[in-house]
Amino acid sequence: MAFTPTHPYNAWRASTGVAEFQATMADACRNYYEATTRPYNKTRVLAVCWEKDEISGLGTQARRVRDLFQQSYGYDVELLVIQMQDPNPDATISFNLGRLLSGLKEGDLAIFYYIGNGDQGGFQEVRAQIIDPSPADVLIVLDCCVAPGIGIGYRKELIAASAFDGTTEYSPSGFTDALVQQLQHAIDNRHILSTAQLYNRLATRHLATQYLAIQGRIPQLNAMPYFLQNSGENRAPIMLTPNMAHESETLALRKPPPQYR
Question: Which pTM was predicted?
Answer without folding.
Answer: 0.77
